Amino acid sequence: MFLKKKQRVLELTDTIIEMVGILNQIQDPSQELSDCLMALDIIAEQLMQEEELSPLLIEQFNTVQSSFVMYYENLKELTGDNLSETLAQLISLVSLIKDTINTKLNIVFFPYKVSMWDSLSTVYEAAKNDENCVVNVVPIPYYQLAQDKAIPTYEGDRFPEDVKITHFDDYKLEEQEPDIIFIHNIYDNYNTLTRVYDEYFTSNLKKYTDMLVYVPYYTASFIPYKKGGFYPYHSPAIDNIDKFILAHNKEKEIALEEGIQEDKLLVLGSPKLDIMYRSLNSKHEYPEEWKEKLDGKTVYVLNTGCMYFAVNPFVALEKLIDIFNIPRFVENSVILWRPHPLTEISILKYTPYFSGYFSNLLDNGINGNDPLYKGIILDKTDDYMNALLLADVLITTDSSILRSYLLTEKKVLFWDEKAPKDSLVPENAFYYAYSKSEPWYELVKKFPEGYDPLEQNRIGVGSQVYVNSDGTSGEKIFREIKAALQGRRS
Question: What is the mean pLDDT of residues 3-18?
Answer without folding.
Answer: 96
